[in-house]
Design goal:
47% of the residues lie in helices and 21% in strands. It is of the alpha/beta class. It has a five-stranded mixed beta sheet, with helices on both faces. Helix 1 packs parallel to helix 6.
Amino acid sequence: MYTTDTDKKIAEAIKERMCKLGKTLSTAESCTSGRIAATLTSVDGASEYVQGGLVAYQDDVKSRFLGVPPSLIKEYDVVSEPVVKAMVAGACKMFDTDFAIASTGYAGSGSNGISSGTIWIGWGGGKDIHAKCLNENLGREANTAHAAECAVREFLDYINSRM
């Protein structure tokens, strides 16, 4: 997994802002397989605010560790806005953080009528959780890289606009 210069600049900006605010962050990732956490921790000093991350690839792991209700997965599909928002909330609770960033999607083959490249990213904390759907099939590796970069960029915009 390679972290680009752009990713590192975003990670550095997030670190500076989070440390200034005295806030904490965690991740809950499915299709990005830890790439968001790797981006955040690619800069010195990330341990000052990053508490941890979970790669929750299987549905039952999302439910057991992040508290995503199986009924939510069944009703909306695991690749959906309600699920990624529940993952954000679950990561905040699991790691006792102010904020979290999450991802769920089909980076490779699609499923259940949802096409490959459909990835939901989520970010926020408390009752202020946001989500965005990405729909570009760039190939598995490019899909995950793109989703991770979009997720950290959205989170940076979020913390800059709200605090």
